[in-house]
Structures are given as structure tokens and as C-alpha cells.
Amino acid sequence: MPKLLVHVTCGPEQPTKAALAFLVARAALEEGHEVSIFLAGDGVQLLRDATLDAVQGVGTGSLRESFDAVVAGGAAIYASGMSSKAREVALEGRAEPAMPNRLVELALESDCVLTY
């Protein structure tokens, strides 16, 4: 099955785009694809409980629903360690901390990379 990397750099200030990233990842998993998600920059803020519960995209649904579905579907979720530290986001087991070289590895291993 093809591998998909979803690279998320937008945060809660762009709720539709943020929710869309996870909705697309969810759809790919449902089709049987292998999915990795890498959150960087403001995207790491999407891992906060309050943000997961509050973000609702216009036409793209609830971030929490899609996030829970990608976790249940087995997506590998990574978060930039530097971005998380700078924004004081505790990963709390929701994502594996990773450095930029991991993002490069994931991109080169993937058949397709989508960036939101």
C-alpha cells in the first residue's frame, strides 16, 4: 500500500485547514494506506486537549473526531521537538518528538507528501 505523509504547520488560527489535514489522513487510513503525520511550527498546538476539542473546520468537521480516528487507525504521529518546546506543548504520549531530519526521512520514504 502507498505511504502518505501529512505535514501540518498550521495551528488553531486556521481551523478549517487544521481539521482538513486530519480528515485527509483519516480518509487515507480508511482506504488502507500507511499514514504518518508530522506536526511542526504552530501545528504542534493541535495536540493540546483544549484545541482538539475546540477546533471545528468549516466543512471539514471536528479536529477531535479525526484525530481520534487517525490514532485508532494506527497513524504514526510525530511532533517537532523544537516547535513543541518553543510553544510549551507537552506531547503526553500523543506524538513522538522528532527533529527535522526525521521529517526529511519520512518525506523521502513516502509516496506522497501533503502539507497543510
Can you walk through the features of this model?
The chain is globular. 41% of the residues lie in helices and 24% in strands. The chain has one domain (3-115): DsrEFH-like (Hypothetical Protein Ychn, Chain: A, 3-Layer(aba) Sandwich). Strand 1, helix 1 (15-30) and strand 2 form a beta-alpha-beta unit. The protein is α/β, with parallel strands linked by helices. It contains 5 helices and 7 strands. The protein has a 5-stranded parallel sheet with strand order 6-5-2-1-7, sandwiched between helices. 37% of the residues are buried.
Q: TL;DR of this structure?
A:
This protein has five helices and seven strands. It has 116 residues and is of the alpha/beta class.
